Amino acid sequence: MMCQGKCSTCSCSKCMGIALLPLAVCAIISNLLLYFPNGEVLEARRITDLVWFFHGILGAGILVFLPAFMMVGAGGAGRCSNKCGMVLSLVFAVLGAAGGLYCVTISSLGLISGPLCDIGDEVYVYPFRNDTLANNYLFNQTNWSICKKPENIILWNIVLFSLLLAIGTAEVVLCLIEVVKGLIGFLCSSCLRERKTDIGGM
């Protein structure tokens, strides 16, 4: 079925590429917003450390742009018409999946460990970092009052890290679908060429 529908396969890839582009843009914006807790400009040492892993900018952003642009151009000659194009698309899709997975990992850690905040008298610490999963601050909002500044820092981090987690998950799924399709297309292309060679030899 895959061998007989190269045009529909490329159209599907193009649709996934179009879906990945806004996801990557949203990931970059979400990551940038984490540098400005509650819309405030803080010193770098007062920003949650996991933000500096650039999981939204690099992982779910730049690394996902590569397969996205490749997929968007899938309808033209190149990607679906030769092995080189298919291999390149496959490599970029793997990079995109890795970038999305990186974003999911860091976002999960960010949600579990909580933000850096002022607990009073300009003392910035990670008040929830040593919590057990059962007693995590995510399930016990009564502990949120321990963070005095920046205002609403806990909710700010939860919303943005959750958004990045969702974006990264969606990107991983889309890129892995493209990886599977690429592998099938590559094997199918090899199979067709071998058949043509056999028929020609006869």
Automatic annotation (TrEMBL):
Its keywords, alphabetically, are: Membrane, Transmembrane, Transmembrane helix
Q: What would be one Pfam family of this protein?
A: L6_membrane
User: Which family, according to UniProt?
Assistant: Belongs to the L6 tetraspanin family.
Which organism is the protein's source?
A: Pogona vitticeps
Regions crossing the membrane? 20-38, 50-74, 86-112, 153-177
Q: How does it sit in the membrane?
A: Multi-pass membrane protein
Superkingdom of origin: Eukaryota
- State its location(s): Membrane
Q: What is this protein called?
A: Transmembrane 4 L6 family member 1-like
